[in-house]
Amino acid sequence: MKKLIGILSLSLVLLFSLNVYAAKVAVIYDSGGKFDKSFNESAYNAAEKFKADTGHDYMDFEAANNAQIEQGLRKLVDRGANVIVAMGFAMADAVAAVAAESPDVNFTIVDVNWLQGDNLQQIVFKEHEGSFLVGMIAAMKSQTGTVGFVGGMDIPLIRKFHGGYEQGAKYVNPNINVLMNMTGTTPEAWNNPTKGAELTKAQIDKGADVVYQAAGGTGIGVLQAAADAGIFGIGVDANQNYMHPGSVLTSMLKRVDVAVYNAFKTTVDGNYETGVFTLGLAEDGVGWALDEHNESLISDEMKSKVEQAKKDIISGKIVVADASAQ
Amino acid sequence: MEISADIISLVSATLRISTPLVFAAMAGLFAERSGVIDFGLEGKMLAAAFVAASGAHIFGSEWYGLGLAIVCCVALSMLHGFASVTHKGDQVVSCVAINILMIGLTTALAAAWFGQQGLTPTLTDDRRFFEITLPFADAVSGVPLLGPIYSEIISGHYIFVYIAYIFVPCVYWVVFKTRFGLRLRAVGENPSAVDTAGISVELMRYKALAVNGVLVAFAGAYLSTAINANFFREMSAGRGYLALAALIFGKWHPKTALIACLLFGFADALQIRLQGVPIPGIGLIPVQFIQAIPYVLTVVLLAGFVGKAIAPGAIGQPYIKER
Question: Residue B62 CB: number of other CB atoms within 10 A?
Fold first, then answer.
């Protein structure tokens, strides 16, 4: 028994000493879960890519609910993380608290730009700009003159997606009717695909033939209902075109993966920067997805119009209002 | 007479949304009428959703998925029975244990089997249930009034929807018109009298729990293999609790429990359709108020119209022969 403990402790010492000089990076996912095929999964994929590219391992933690976030952050700090990437606005308070206690650890937080601290890198996206482009595509594809939007939890961030989408749709067709539904007002609204499907059916009954979702796991139900009904769905955050080829018209890309990858990479390379970063079309932080799954759905004319609008937004000719700032 | 498209869509959505509630409420009715509290409907529904989706994916047929979901839910009911009937443990504690266990276990197993935490692979079209168009639905759609009711409201649902509403009169018949039903109710009201008559209280409760497991499995399978094409973690989203509320609301009677389920479904369907629609004379109502409709309706009806709900006499009490 003594021998066994000896071997165990020796191997533990070896294990830790091997890693002691390597930078430790970590990511913490929100209640949508690591495999939500969307926001969190983008981060997971970026972390995996980082691991494949650099050979550095990473640590992660899935917060099953908001109460676990602070605990999860502390655990990662205790395990010696040098940088922790926190996914989502729900983590803001916990990150603020833990960051203040651990000045040697850097924190990157996505979708938050209002915190104070020298060890914080806050990254926000201009989702309204990307949503504007997919709104244009929706309006150009719609036969009925009605398009829909299904949001997850009713928060200013999701209003931002809707605002951009509506502006884009109206830019193409000023008379278009844009329907809007929110799934709920609590975090459970991200996890209810059945409700998402029901909301989509209600919008289809009202004439919508393209539905855009910004609803995390609930959005899986939205895209499924759209595919079942033979109409078009639009994915969000990650490229979701592959989920129902021929039915998912496009996806509004929010390059969370770039943010996560860069946070890890710069930490390892030693050029990590703190501060607030706002990523829009100009920075390639948002965009729209075109791949083999949806290229037959997007005509050349649609493509050129959208690319033109993208240029105009970058140059400032088109100004997309941010609905969350109003 | 024309029926407006809005009403058709509202009624049809009410039937769809209420379906899992009806299954779970009927399941709860069997357990609770026999004197066993079933707070675990939520966990069992979640387990059924997971097993149905993964079973359908692995074995290539939605029916295998449903069958396995039934096996799984009956097993969980038996577990509940083992803890609370055989070993006379606290029934609520046993239910809460099932609920918490299922939230964790479904997510963990999805990770272990499919490499995706909390998500099963999307079912291909040959492995899931689809809406059924009833015979003559197209032919009669031109008939005034009845035509649209048949072709738009009654036809075109998943098979689960029909099964749910057929189950309700069956449950009524079993519980109130058969010897099994009489014994079931007696076990829940006055187990010692049943015991005196020479019938095993424990066996009756186990039988009730078996039926409970079968019924609740349908609710879970409906969520993951019909409406959706995969399991998503915590996808039952409180429907089990809502069904239990409907059961209490409906005073442990199939007919009134059905009405309560339909009412919850209707409130939700209405809430979805009122979002973002200006009300004449009032204007646009903030979404938070609209989303509160189902809860407000429940409180008002519960306080104002339903009256006292009297639970089965022996509910929550393990039966002990000799005191």
Answer: 24
